[in-house]
Structure formats: structure tokens, C-alpha cells
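Hi all, posting the design record for the shared folder.

TITLE: backbone redesign
STEP: 1 of 1
STRUCTURE INPUT:
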């Protein structure tokens, strides 16, 4: 895509949130399947940019589950082009943490800690990989759709709440579309 795709708010509506955080929110929703987001509190910034480049948000789901996501845009080559993203989900039964910088996913419950290491492929950003998956689905090479429409709708609900919260400085209620 041309650079204005990511940098012109009249085209994109936002920066990191629209370009990358959508994927992290989708992953978050896979970590808490079936739970409905209720409220979002967020801070964003974009020093010297016309769109936000750095986003931090907290989502309260039903059943008092709380999730936090922090992500940022960085110049090419930063951190070896590895995602700098952390997702933390905490509920009454335990906690799940995905830390791309530390290359691990952890689950802590009363029965102990389980850790899974992430591979080099897991942490490297790849626009081609995402595009290839979509093309494979469209061409019928696979029927596995890791991004179904209902997941996309829920991502947009949280993203909308994030942008409203960041603009107002208030906690936003998530609207079910």
C-alpha cells in the first residue's frame, strides 16, 4: 500500500489502531471466546504524525475479565522488525499473557504456570503471510477462515471504543452493532 494509506486520517481513519492493532484485538478475542466487551479505556499518541502510532488500551469484558493491549509503530529495523506487542487477560480463574518481545505465551492458574515459546515465524511481521491467507481462502485452497465476519465486527466495536476513549479522555461503552 502507498504510505498515505497508513498516514492520512481522511483515508485510514487512524494509524496503528487501523493498521495493526486490529490483528491484536482479534487475537485477544480468540483468547476470551464468547465474552462480550463492555468498556474501553485508551491512550494513543503519534508524535509528529497525523495519525496515532502508539496505542494502549484496557477492555473490561463481562464476568469482570480485564484485558490490556499495548502496541506501537516503530521505524523499519527496530527490534529486528519483530512485533512489540503485549496482551494480558486476567479473570477469576487466572491470567494469560502474550508477549511478542519476550517471545512467549503464559497461562497462570491455581494449578501452576504453563509457558509456550514463540518461534521466529510467530514474531516476525509479514504482510505477505496475511495476504496469502486471504488469497488462499478466496481461491478455495483452504476453507479455514481465521478472520470470520463476526470476529471482525467485534474487533471494530472495541477499536471504535478505543478511538472514542482516546479522543474524550473518558471510558467508552462498547456498542454492539
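Okay, here is what came back for every position:
SEQUENCE:
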Amino acid at each position: 500500500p502507498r504510505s498515505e494509506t497508513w498516514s492520512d486520517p481522511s483515508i485510514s481513519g487512524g494509524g496503528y489502531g487501523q493498521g495493526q492493532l486490529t490483528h491484536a484485538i482479534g487475537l485477544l478475542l480468540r483468547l476470551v471466546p464468547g465474552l462480550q466487551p463492555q468498556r474501553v479505556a485508551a491512550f494513543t499518541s503519534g508524535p509528529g504524525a497525523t495519525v496515532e502510532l502508539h496505542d494502549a488500551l484496557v477492555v473490561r469484558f463481562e464476568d469482570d475479565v480485564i484485558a490490556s493491549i499495548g502496541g506501537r509503530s516503530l521505524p523499519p529495523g527496530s527490534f529486528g522488525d519483530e512485533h512489540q506487542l503485549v496482551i494480558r487477560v486476567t479473570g477469576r480463574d487466572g491470567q494469560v499473557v502474550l508477549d511478542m518481545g519476550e517471545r512467549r505465551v503464559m497461562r497462570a492458574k491455581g494449578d501452576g504456570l504453563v509457558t509456550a515459546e514463540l518461534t521466529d515465524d510467530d514474531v516476525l511481521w509479514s504482510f505477505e503471510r496475511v495476504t496469502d491467507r486471504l488469497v488462499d481462502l478466496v481461491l478455495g485452497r483452504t476453507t479455514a477462515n481465521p478472520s470470520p465476519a463476526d470476529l471482525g465486527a467485534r474487533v471494530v466495536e472495541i477499536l471504535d471504543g478505543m478511538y472514542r476513549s482516546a479522543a474524550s479522555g473518558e471510558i467508552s461503552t462498547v456498542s454492539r452493532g
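COMMENT: The first strand starts at residue 37 and ends at 45.
Let me know if anyone wants the other runs.
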